[in-house]
Design goal:
Length: 226
């Protein structure tokens, strides 16, 4: 199934808002580190409900925020959640970004980058659209070290790239992005029940759930354009 078909179905089911709720616990910490200045142009890649771009507009007084998504229904939903004229949503693909060279100050992407058909091509596109010194904040929960995420590929028809932290750094550098920082952001908010509640529908063992959320969390890699 295509990105469009898969994620249009998610958006039609209201899963765009569900993702927002799940991702916010770690995304907000990464968003809080972005060096966005008033007036900056920011691009949210794979924006889903668009919550991150709207938060960037509201908290940093960014000039223009674009949310790009390959699923038209996602972009349509995102547009319906705001009447801010400086936030815009476009339908597009990670492989060919519809922006001029050096046009963007900062790129954000949460839980979306690994769906790129060719992640190296996407990184080159990000490096192209970023102005020199611009940053790419890339958050993923699906990565090699997070063994609890590996089964996600079985649940979705879109091919996913599962890199480890070192592969992210190497790929960023290959595309011309200096790696300014990389770490994991734990989710301290998700409710982890007492031992007596296990096994649950989703988790066999409490220690696995603790590891997934409190130890691994979101892998954040930050690149800076040359
Ligand atoms: C798991 S959702 C994450 C949405 C949002 N960033 C969040 O944190 O909730 C991934 C999003 O990326 C979009 N996406 C996946 N592959 C894409 C591609 N190749 N080009 C454009 N958008 C894509 C999907 O349509 C979907 O809305």
């Amino acid at each position: 199934m295509s990105v469009r078909a898969e994620f249009d179905a998610w958006a039609a089911d209201g899963r765009d808002r569900g993702m927002e709720d799940r991702h916010w616990a770690t995304a907000k910490h990464a968003l809080g580190r972005m060096p966005v200045e008033p007036g900056d142009v920011v691009l949210d890649l794979g924006c889903g409900s668009g919550y991150a771009g709207r938060a960037i507009r509201d908290t940093y007084d960014a000039g223009t925020v674009y949310g790009l998504d390959g699923a038209p229904k996602m972009a349509e939903n995102a547009a319906s959640y705001t009447d801010d004229p400086q936030v815009g949503y476009v339908v597009g693909d990670f492989g060919s970004l519809p922006f001029a060279t050096d046009a963007i100050d900062h790129v954000w992407s949460m839980e979306a980058f690994y769906y790129a058909a060719d992640p190296h091509e996407t990184l080159r596109e990000i490096a192209r659209v970023l102005r020199p010194g611009g940053t790419f904040y890339c958050g993923v929960n699906f990565y090699e070290e997070n063994v609890h995420s590996h089964e996600w590929q079985d649940r979705i028809s879109v091919e996913m790239t599962r890199w480890d932290a070192g592969e992210y750094r190497e790929a960023f550098r290959d595309a011309g992005l200096h790696v300014a920082e990389q770490d994991t952001i734990p989710d301290r908010e998700v409710d982890i029940p007492d031992e007596s509640a296990f096994p649950t529908d989703d988790w066999e063992r409490r220690e696995d759930m603790v590891e997934r959320y409190r130890e691994f969390g979101t892998l954040l890699t930050v690149g800076v354009a040359e």
